[in-house]
Amino acid sequence: MAFKCFILVLFITISIFSFDATLPEQTLPPLPSMPTLLKPTLPPLPSLTTLPKPTLPSLLPPLPTLSKPTLPTLPTLPPLLPPLSMLPKPTLPPLPTFPSIPTIPTLPKPTL
User: Fold this and answer.
1) Is the pTM of this model over 0.70?
2) Which residues form the signal peptide (predicted)?
3) CA distances from 72 to 8, 29, 69, 75, 107 (A)
4) Which end of the chain has the smaller Cβ count within 10 Å, N or C?
5) Would you state the pLDDT for residue 74?
């Protein structure tokens, strides 16, 4: 509770001081306008002369064609998992049997 009151008092104090600080600013004369500074200009780009394109000799010997070697055959890998028909079927273990509760014989009531 004390922390909330402290925050409230702090907020009110800042509000009052900011209000008091803005009152004298309203009576100040406006500031003179800033003169605009000239922006430096870039010098013009020099003109580029076009270079002559090189000419390739027209009679080039043809490139020799090489025959591609044949690729070896890939070896076959054995299967990682055996077929499902070869796997044994999973079975659950037998459930435990609970011992039966013995019956308590009833005694005959004595007659008086």
Assistant:
1) no
2) 1-24
3) 85, 94, 9, 9, 94
4) C
5) 84
